[in-house]
Amino acid sequence: MPGYKCASNAFVSQLLRELPENYIYVTSANKSHHLTGAAEEPAHWLPQPLARDFLDVGDFYMLCHRDDTVVRQNHPEHVPMSTTIISFYKARDTPIIYIERHGSMSLEHTIAIIEKHGFKFKATEAGTKRLGHRD
């Protein structure tokens, strides 16, 4: 899903107003290896290869940036790959943020942001090993 400053928020807002559901399903940026039987591989970070993977899917729509290079320049702390995923838990009235998957943002940067907001964090086993990425 888009970040707070992303221009695509207007599109997503309009989409949510027009859908009967109050949610949008967002998939990983590749087909599941469980579905294809292929070896697990890193997710796409460029739109053209991703679109080729889903040519056989009807009613598949993809929202892309006008210029991925500009976006990457605006977010130098992110490596072009799958995202880092965090989750929120509350233990004894103390919110804890779990780093569930180590992706595009470095652990150091992720932890700095979490601590800046006064939260405690824990990293799962998957959260400590950075995902592979495509060239």
Please state the overall shape, judged from the principal axes of the Cα atoms.
Answer: globular
Terminal Cα span: 23 Å
Number of helices: 6
Structural class estimated from helices and strands: alpha+beta
Rg over C-alpha atoms, rounded to the nearest angstrom: 17 Å
Task: Name the average pLDDT.
Answer: 82
Strand % is 5-15%
Outline the low-pLDDT stretches: none
Major sheet description: 3 strands, mixed
Q: Helix fraction?
A: 25-40%
Order of helices and strands: HHHHEEHEH
Task: Spell out the blueprint of helices and strands.
Layout lengths: L8 H10 L14 H4 L10 H7 L14 H7 L10 E7 L2 E8 L5 H10 L3 E4 L1 H4 L7
Parallel strand pairs: 2-3
Antiparallel strand pairs: 1-2
Structural description of this entry:
The chain is of the alpha+beta class. The protein folds into 2 domains: 9-74, no CATH class; 85-128. The chain has helices at 9-18, 33-36, 47-53, 68-74, 107-116, 125-128, and strands at residues 85-91, 94-101, 120-123. A 3-stranded mixed sheet has the order 1-2-3. The two termini are 23 Å apart. The relative contact order is 0.13. The mean pLDDT is 82.
Summary of the model, kept short:
This protein has six helices and three strands. The chain has helices at residues 9-18, 33-36, 47-53, 68-74, 107-116, 125-128; strands at 85-91, 94-101, 120-123.
Defining traits:
135 residues, alpha+beta, 2 domains, three-stranded mixed sheet, 6 helices, 31% helix, 14% strand, globular
